[in-house]
Amino acid sequence: DIQMTQSPSSLSASVGDRVTISCRASQSVYSYLSWYQQKPGKAPKLLIHAASALEVGVPPRFSGSGFGTDFTLTISSLQPEDFATYFCQQSYSAWTFGQGTKVEI
Amino acid sequence: EVRLVESGGSSVQPGGSLRLSCAASGFTFSSYSMSWVRQAPGKGLEWVSYISGGGDTTYYADSVKGRFTISGDSAKKSLSLQMNSLRDEDTAVYYCVRVASGSFRYFDYWGLGTLVIVSS
User: Fold this and answer.
1) What is the spatial distance between Cα B65 and Cα B48, in angstroms, rounded to a whole number?
2) What pLDDT is stored for residue B54 in this prediction?
3) CA pair distance A47, B107, nearest whole angstrom
């Protein structure tokens, strides 16, 4: 099974900060990497697929990069509505998620 | 508008059974693969099961293999998850998700979830 490891597990940031979340796969997943945002009590929401393809309607301050085993989600200027937990997911072999990164004030 | 609405979650004793359902609308159900994903209280996301659009291919996480069965009904536009021999560790919110078309197989739409509690 492919394991996904995110770092950090949590981070504190302020509005306007640039935030970077890392995700590492235990073996290559090529570009089969997605990012989801989850707010408390809500279902996850797809932000990015294929490592860097932004979903329609997702603000361009979100971006994804990487290939193979190392991936990054960047929020260029954190907004109040971005405080949430973010998960990476590989879909190359079955599906596994990272443990999540909580972005808080 | 794509909508996925889960139902069937409740409290059950260990060893018991439960059947979850997901009503889909806003898209051609038979053209999409579907999955179930769960989230234990305060924990991360775990993929549970997958079914292809035609219903001929299914996959299960090792943690539920042999105990859970996924099925789909194109006529009713409905997805189901039959859960038997339930364990404490199956306690979670269960989400019905649509698998995006194409090769990347990410989860593009999620339901609101239904809560399953396994406890004596």
Assistant:
1) 9
2) 87
3) 10
Residue B45's beta-bridge partner residues? Answer: B39
What is the per-residue pLDDT across B77-91, written as a single tens digit (0 to 9) for each? 999 999 999 999 999
3 state DSSP class of B55: coil
Torsional sign, CA B77, A96, A76, A102: positive
Task: For CA atoms A101, B92, B60, B71, give the dihedral sign.
Answer: negative
CA distance B104 to chain A (A): 6
Give φ, ψ of A80 to 5 degrees: -55, -35
- Answer yes or no: is pLDDT of A93 > 90: yes
CB atoms within 10 A of CB A27: 12
- Is A43's Cβ below 8 Å from some Cβ in B? yes
